[in-house]
Amino acid sequence: MKVLLIKDVYKLGRAGDVKRVADGFGRNYLLSQGLAVLATPGALKQTDHIRAQATIRRNAINTEMGSIADQVKGVVVAFGVKAGETGKLYGSITNHMVAEAINQKLGTKVDHHQVEMQPIRNLGEFKAHVRLTVDLTPEIKVIVHREGETPAQLAQQPVAEEKAA
Known about the structure:
CATH architecture of the largest domain: Roll
CATH class of the largest domain: Alpha Beta
Low-confidence stretches: 157-165
Distance between the termini: 59 Å
Radius of gyration: 21 Å
């Protein structure tokens, strides 16, 4: 099925693009959510207009979200968790937990769907991306340490090992 995107769709394309998608995805998601229309000859005549409108909308949203992106960029979130001797966690750190920590720290409204990361199951430092818009994806640092330790102790351990080597 060929569709004309009306709005930006993450990992598919920008507004005004003509894409070939699976019938079920197009019918059940894109068309029903109003994100796309069937790529008919009449609809294809409107691609330039749709692209221009989407560019204006995208720029407005990016300026609004720019201040939030500046706040989120470089944020360090630390979690004290129980872990085994090998550094494997007795649970995992999920994008829900990271989103809650960001919201508590900054007072923003970041949804867990916007946090892109795999569940963390080991001690250490990890990077996660917060997808605010298609163009704005600031990176944050997630530090996972044992309960009772401080994140500063965890950050000093690799430095001590480098000096010994």
